[in-house]
Amino acid sequence: MATFVRVQEVEHPIAAGGQFTLRTTSADVEMRGRDTDVARVRIEFELRAGSDAEADQAFEGLRYGVHTADGVLEVTEPRPTDHALGAITRMLGITGIKVETRVVAEVPERATITYSGVSADLIATGTLGTQEYRTVSGDVVLSDAGGEIQVGGVSGDVSLRADSPVWLRANTVSGDLSAIAPRFEGCRVVTVSGDVDLDGGLAPGSEHRIETVSGDLSLGIAGGLTLEVRGLSSDVEVNVAHRSEGSRDRRRYVVGDGAASLRFSSMSGDVTVSNARRGGGSVPPVPPRPPAPVAPPPPPRTALSEDAQLEVLRALERGEIDVEEATRRLAGGGTDG
């Protein structure tokens, strides 16, 4: 069998604030933000087939669907029931034709981007607008990025390197998240078993929250921070000058002037805090305070039975309660009344 290459090209003006949507499966995807008003997509199919005719027939069934409107471009891989793809898929199985797909998209750098991929890795560079990325079994790598970024991933890692401020929302399952930015205008991260590495300044007065079930948090800070940790078995290591207060399952660590605030909630994830690796400089030391008076120990809490603990974990899994509420109940706080 020989290798045949077929190419589909799409071009449409969407302007700086236009909408670009891409949905794909099992393709390598590269997206580039450009100083342009035109979105351009090149889809390259590499087919192993017995003849030109077989390759042409397969290509006709594999072509992506295209929808255009004023300021809108949508490029979507066809479903198995679309067009003649069902027959083509059967033909591919019979003849042994194999296909590899690569997608390269150039879009206005401040366009609104919606991406959905299954078993597809994405590399995006220079995107600065409102962005939403959803992936299953695929990694997402964003560089020279900025703007409002929302990422959802299952069994895939997420890497973000921003050159301008970002507002980050992320929800991952079994995937690590690494994000570096000069400034996070807001941050809301929820992960089940993946670790979170966050590095940069946090805007005061904004919401910054990170929730994990078992994932650890590595935090590199630039500027003052008040860190609140809520967890039953979370260890905390703060490698910058700070002061701490609070109880075992609800602790606060104040770094510098404490202007920004971040809440970390976890069942068993640990926290490490250091100076940011880039930008922002080091955190000024905290002047010493006289020791606080020793408070009497809290009354003992009633330990939950194994069945009761299991029910709390099942409620967490069903989404009926969040990590913070599960932690409170496991600590003996009871249910909300």
Secondary structure blueprint with pairings:
Layout: E1 2-13, E2 19-25, E3 27-34, E4 38-49, H1 52-62, E5 65-69, E6 72-76, H2 85-95, E7 98-108, E8 112-118, E9 122-125, E10 131-136, E11 140-154, E12 158-173, E13 177-191, E14 196-202, E15 208-212, E16 217-221, E17 225-231, E18 236-238, E19 243-247, E20 250-255, E21 260-266, E22 271-275, H3 306-318, H4 323-333
Helix pairs in contact: 1-2, 3-4
Could you characterize what this model shows?
The structure is a single chain. With 337 residues, the protein is mainly beta. It folds into 3 domains: 1-107, no CATH class; 139-295, no CATH class; 302-337, no CATH class. It is built from 4 helices and 22 strands. It has helices at 52-62, 85-95, 306-318, 323-333, and strands spanning 2-13, 19-25, 27-34, 38-49, 65-69, 72-76, 98-108, 112-118, 122-125, 131-136, 140-154, 158-173, 177-191, 196-202, 208-212, 217-221, 225-231, 236-238, 243-247, 250-255, 260-266, 271-275. It has a 22-stranded mixed sheet that branches. The chain is elongated and about 70 Å long. The termini are far apart. 36% of the residues are buried.
